[in-house]
User: What shape does this take?
Amino acid sequence: MFLEYLFYVLVFPGFLFASVLGLIVGWVERKVSAKVQFRVGPPFFQNFYDVFKLMGKEIVLIKNSPYFLFIIAPIIAFASVTITATLVGMSFFYQVGFGADLLFIIYLTVIYSVSLIIGGSSTGNIYSSIGAGREMKMVLSDEVAFILVLLVPIIKAGYTINLAQIINFQANNGMIIGSASGIIAFIIGIICVQAKMGMQPFDIAEAETEIVEGPLMEYSGPLLAFWKLSHYIMYVFFPMLLVILFWGGANLNSVGNVIASIAKYLLVVVLLILIKNTNPRVRIDTALKFFWKYASPLAFIAVILAILGA
Amino acid sequence: MWNNYLFLIVVIPIIVSIINLVFPKLWKKILTFIGVAITLFLSIKIFAAEALEFSLLDVTLFQTNSLANFILLFINVLSFIILIYSLKNVKEDIENKFFLLFPLAVSFSNGVALSGNMVAFMVFWGLTGMLVYLFGLLSGSKGAESSRKAFIIIGTSDVLLIVGLVIMFLSSQTSDMYSMNVPLSSLLNVIAFICMILSAFTKAGAFPMHTWVPDFAKDAPVESVALLPAAMDKLLGIYLFARIMIDGLFIFPYLVNIIIMVIGVFTIIMAVMMALIQHNGRKLLGYHAVSQVGYMVLGIGTGNPIGIIGGLFHMLNNAIYKSNLFLSFGSVEKKTGTADLDEMGGLARKMPMTFIAALVGALAISGIPPLNGFFSKWMVYQSVLEAAASQTHIWQIVLNVCLVLAVFGSALTLASFIKFIHSIYLSKLPAKYNDVTEVSFANWFGNNLLALMCVIFGLAVYAIPVKLFLLPILPAGSTIKNIMLGFYEPGIILFFFAISIIVGVIIYYIFKKIRFDDEYVGTMPTTEANRITGVEFYDDVKNMRPFKSIYKWANKKYFDIYKYGTDVSLWFGDIFHKLHTGLLHTYAIWTLAGLVIVTLILISAL
Assistant: This one.
């Protein structure tokens, strides 16, 4: 039992699997971006080299700052994304509700943002503080829309927040993405995930060209590697979560199904990457307005449709 | 009589307070400490016993059930911890009076929790309301206006309570609150119901009777704010509310539940939006003290078992972390001499223990797992989903909107606490606070006891709070598994947390190479002049339509029931004022008119 759970969290689908897959998907991201911009792009192992190189660099701590927070924040964030990847991965690969339900998983993902804000702004750097404020506003902006998006599968599957039951429902009644409410919710869900992962056009908190990666500004060495790795692990579980909620999760019982499952996952990833590459960064007030005044009402319509059975 | 716990737990603090009148300051502290320790001991005894009774002159005055036991226990636990904090650094000039009032607050709150008889309930309820006023007055002229406001609003609610209870007495012919079932069949009973609900809402601080809380929180001594509006009044107000909703004081259709849930959600959103833009730390906390009540109202309003324990759990959690936050802010305020968030910054290094307590409190109130605040909110969300599942389409939509707004309210809470933590403890330390030191042991120890409770109630959520305090309130045989919609396995999740954090720490220790330096912006060390306080984080929200106009109206107090109340009473006052012209013949005419009316009434009665 103990070893089994240790395997889940450390090897598959947790730490090791999520990190490796995350770095590979990170390479896909860089490669696709390069293709879109008519560049060659990095070699396959580039992200691995990056992380290992960061591990060897020194950490610069700020004098007279609460650097305990500065150090612990990326570790906590990393732990939270690892657990999320484990829980989502268990549902994705084994079709079980494991450890906790959907609401819990969603709240787990908030830990990443909170750690980023607290760790970043503990340094007292101006850019970090600006970035922290923006990160928080991003959490605010996509929250309503994202919860509405989640409500669609919850309602469709008969008010359950157990991922296994949502997958089961789809196995018996067809994919949620096939319904009118499902497709609307799925599209808005993709945009929300874009915002949750801080990808363009919503990379407002980190905005390299403007506020020098905001909260990450003072981070270096292994601590920065934790942040980068956490970010890549998000590439693993957010698309998986969308596939579980709207597209029936993965099915590994035949070769065709395995390929179909991988294709579903990759399609969501590539959609995310394409949106990233075709949209410039928006201002924070534009993002707030977009999510509160357009995306959320649309998602609300999807919820109403779901309640009415469409 | 003299060996009845229920009697002693109310009387001992009163005796302490009377002795305190004549004793010197140090003895006051010692006596109060001993007195509250005894009541804490008694409350544990009462909690362990099943149901107790205390009668005087053949009338059952005090009575307990599992809900009352639970409330009583935490009244005493929290007052004990707040007392530990208050042993040091209460303002010199108010210390004497503070230790007179403190035992009284404990005694009266215990009285409310224990009263099974409606007259006793009314008396103790009124007395706790009066204590709010007396504590507010300790701040002198600064607190006069806000304590008057609190007193008037609470006083009004006491009148409502009396009206409600009288009607209930007339319709049920009993004054025993444990054996009433009033159906909402007549208009009179509906009025009674509304009166009782409003009275509970005033004490707890829910819309529309909440407006005294933020103002009181701003001006009154911080220890008393942590004790009364943050802890006791929440426990007592929600206690009455829970008695009304679940103990069968009234019998009502489900529509009433839905209306109450909508009020709950409105309370959450409205108060948290106000909190988001505050510059005064105490007012920010005060608005949160209102906003959190919304979750309790929402949860208990659903009427299903998970909602009831979720709402009550949230009440308990809120009492813990809200008094924790008020106390930590009080410590900061004592050291910096200001409650203005713009003035502060970077205090985490200077006051590490206070910071830890505040951070735990802030994360708990924002619902970050695995702290206690998360679990109560999570239960409330589930209860709303469960309530929606069995409704018709239109109510499903309403309840889903409630759920979304409640979740969003939680995000807004997180946002305003990020601002709170950032502007006080993170960012850059202003030079004027270079000499600030940590507060004394009693202060941070008491504070961190509360933080510790937040952590324990979160980590051991099923083993301690749910099993010991919450499930006994539900009908026998309920287990957490069969009332919940979702699931959570603490063993697995906490194991995963531990393992992944250990892995992270190991990786960090293997690779760490550390150098210390200043922080730079464009090759120059940053200066205090252009530091970011964090108070302006949400100006984008503030300046966005339609919030801009709503905030403007709120600043003009358009949403404050107190303003309308005073307007109406001043208008009446004005009329009577105009009648007093000082001319003798006007008075003579009024006298004559009165005489005629009295005569007419007498004649018609014949």
Q: What stands out?
A: The mean pLDDT of chain A is 86. Residues 93 and 250 of chain A are 6 Å apart (CA to CA).
